[in-house]
Design a protein that fits this description.
CATH architecture of chain A: Up-down Bundle
Shape of chain B: globular
Largest sheet of chain B: none
Radius of gyration of chain A: 24 Å
Structural class of chain B: mainly alpha
Order of helices and strands of chain B: HHHHHHHHH
Strand content of chain A: under 5%
Strand content of chain B: under 5%
Distance between the termini of chain A: 46 Å
Structural class of chain A: mainly alpha
CATH superfamily of chain A: F1F0 ATP synthase subunit C
Order of helices and strands of chain A: HHH
Number of helices of chain B: 9
Helix content of chain A: over 70%
Radius of gyration of chain B: 26 Å
Oligomer: heterodimer
Shape of chain A: rod-shaped
Largest sheet of chain A: none
CATH topology of chain A: F1FO ATP Synthase
Number of strands of chain A: 0
Chain lengths: ~100, ~280
């Protein structure tokens, strides 16, 4: 029984020994992962829809493939920017 | 009494293994971001990224100077062939698709921009260099500011100062009452979000690719040089190595695609500023 209390005390001491800076770094790393994960959901769905619709359009009208492809990349670029801003938030939280 | 001390000692050892120590220890650990992106400065202010971006500007210029010195009447081959393919790509796939025939005067600007960004992206996969110059914010931010100045100046030149801001802030065909909503959105999206997203898109894409390559290279090294359970870990190390090769090939595509997207968006912005009715 005495040994168990001592172990509990020691483990509590080890857990408390994290300095405030380390605790901040830990929570920043967790939040960074969460931020990027959340930011990737919407753009993932959006890019999938853009490519799917573009393939549909190209299959229906192969002669308009060039125009569809340019517009598709424009749409992908705008959608992807949201995920990339999430990635930048990840970098800033993790390393800055 | 003795057994209690032993138990405490053992539990402290276990806890010290669970709680990461400051020095990290053996195995897989990610180096600080500065060692990945910065290296040593050659002289103050000049590091690898600066050298790569200067070299890519020089290589692009030299390629096109050599190509232009060839005889234009003969069938093109070598460097002239390459240069003609790139110019034709810019004219046919970027300018004709976004600005139409009236935008042909922008070929030199867009061509320079495309070549420079592509040559800055490409060192990300060249062995022993392996650093895209656009993975630092400096190059993309400057390019985006340049584009911002150019498309605003084009709009003011073609429509006049008042006309340009009228077409940006009060787009025609919108009900009058909605201008309360539309005008602030248009102001922010044209003057702030456009250059910001241009710069961040290029920067974050290249940085993400670079970090991916770093992570899989480190993982391969950590598994193949494992000190315990070698029979088990070394065959597993082949998996990240295979993915590393695949990602390197994928980065060639990304390098081209980002240069293309940057140039296309520049063309769209300039075209929209010059001819607002489209």
């Amino acid at each position: 029984m005495e040994a168990l209390t001592r172990i509990a005390q020691v483990s509590a001491r080890v857990a408390v020994e994290l300095t405030p800076a380390e605790l901040k770094a830990n929570s920043a790393a967790q939040m960074a992962g969460l931020a990027y994960g959340l930011a990737a959901i919407g753009p993932g769905i959006g890019i999938g829809m853009i490519f799917g619709k573009a393939i549909e359009a190209m299959a229906r009208q192969p002669e308009s493939a060039g125009m569809v492809r340019t517009t598709m990349f424009l749409g992908v670029a705008f959608t992807e920017a949201l995920a990339l801003i999430g990635f930048v938030a990840f970098i800033l939280l993790k390393f800055a | 009494m003795f057994s209690t001390q032993l138990a405490i000692k053992a539990s402290v050892q276990v806890l010290q293994k669970l709680v990461p120590s400051a020095e990290g220890g053996r195995g897989f650990s990610f180096p600080p971001i500065n060692t990945i992106l910065r290296w040593k400065d050659v002289t103050p202010g000049i590091n690898k990224v600066v050298i790569i971006s200067i070299l890519s500007a020089v290589i692009g210029t030299v390629l096109f100077l050599v190509a232009s010195s060839k005889d234009a009447r003969k069938a093109p081959k070598g460097s002239r062939n390459l240069a003609e393919i790139i110019v034709e790509f810019i004219e046919k796939n970027i300018i004709m698709e976004t600005m139409g025939k009236s935008g042909m005067g922008w070929t030199p600007f867009l061509l320079t921009m495309f070549i420079f960004i592509y040559l800055c992206n490409l060192p990300g996969i060249i062995p022993f260099i392996q650093m895209p110059a656009t993975a630092r914010m400096g190059v993309p931010a400057f390019m985006a500011l340049l584009v911002w100045v150019v498309f605003n100046a084009t709009g003011i030149k073609h429509q006049g100062l008042f006309g340009y801001f009228k077409s940006v802030l009060f787009p025609p065909g919108v009900p009058k009452a909605l201008y309360i909503l539309v005008t602030p959105i248009e102001l922010i999206s044209t003057l702030v979000v456009r250059p910001f997203s241009l710069a961040v898109r290029l920067f974050a894409n290249m940085l993400a690719g670079h970090l991916l390559l770093v992570i899989f290279a480190l993982l391969t090294q950590a598994l193949i040089q494992a000190e315990t359970q070698r029979f088990f870990l070394i065959p597993i190390g082949i998996l990240p190595f295979g993915l590393l090769i695949f990602l390197t090939a994928f980065e060639i595509l990304v390098a081209f695609l980002q240069a293309y997207i940057f140039t296309v968006l520049t063309a769209v912005y300039i075209g929209g500023a010059a001819h607002p009715e489209h």
